[in-house]
Specification:
The chain has helices at about 40-50, 160-165, 170-180, and strands at about 1-10, 15-25, 30-40, 65-70, 85, 125-130, 130-135, 145-150, 155. The protein is an alpha+beta fold. One of its GO terms (biological process) is retinoic acid metabolic process.
Length: about 180
């Protein structure tokens, strides 16, 4: 178990509180990441305002970031400790019909089909003050360490500057995708 700082939203409409949290080790098929950089998106504000009907509090927000793999759970083969990565708020299992379709990016394992307040095994890796803390979109980048399913992490080039590529997790990809695919500019 790693103790670190995280910004916790204890209840809708309340400000974030920086707390010491415990982050459990990754289980099979999971990756524990040391978050080096994170972005802030309006979606995080919507979460804290209580706009997501499936969100559960307390929760650690954040859904765009970049970091370094600290440890991996049993069976993880696509990355190893020390690799630079970007957590994905829209996972890519690479096996479902949506991942195999070049016209889609909504993996069947995403929040579209199941809530991502807890990891796929329906447990959390976060605790604070003896209470379970929920994940946000499985990735919770407002923590110094987080645990994410392997299929919700992309290994990136070792030379990539983490403070810049953290925006690829949501901000850049959403903006670029909207301009190119929707607005056709």
């Amino acid at each position: 178990v790693i103790r670190c700082r995280a910004a916790v939203a204890w209840a809708p409409g309340k400000p974030l509180s920086v707390e010491e949290v415990e982050v459990a080790p990754p289980k099979a098929g999971e990756v524990r990441i040391k978050i080096v950089a994170t972005g802030i998106c309006r979606t995080d504000e919507h979460l804290m305002q209580g706009c997501f009907p499936d969100a559960e509090f307390p929760v650690i927000p954040g859904h765009e970031g970049a970091g370094i793999v600290e440890s991996v759970g049993e069976g993880v083969t696509s990355m190893k400790p020390g690799d630079k990565v970007i957590p994905l708020c829209l996972p890519q299992c690479g096996e479902c019909s949506f991942c195999l379709n070049p016209e889609s990016n909504f993996c069947q394992k995403s929040h579209i089909s199941e809530p991502q307040n807890l990891l796929p095994d329906k447990t959390s890796r976060f605790t604070c003050k003896g209470k379970q803390i929920h994940h946000f979109l499985w990735i919770s980048t407002f923590a110094e360490y987080t645990v994410v399913p392997e299929y919700a992490v992309a290994k990136i080039d070792a030379a990539a500057p983490l403070d810049k590529v953290c925006l690829f997790g949501c901000g850049f990809s959403t903006g670029y995708g909207a301009a190119i695919n929707t607005a056709k500019v």
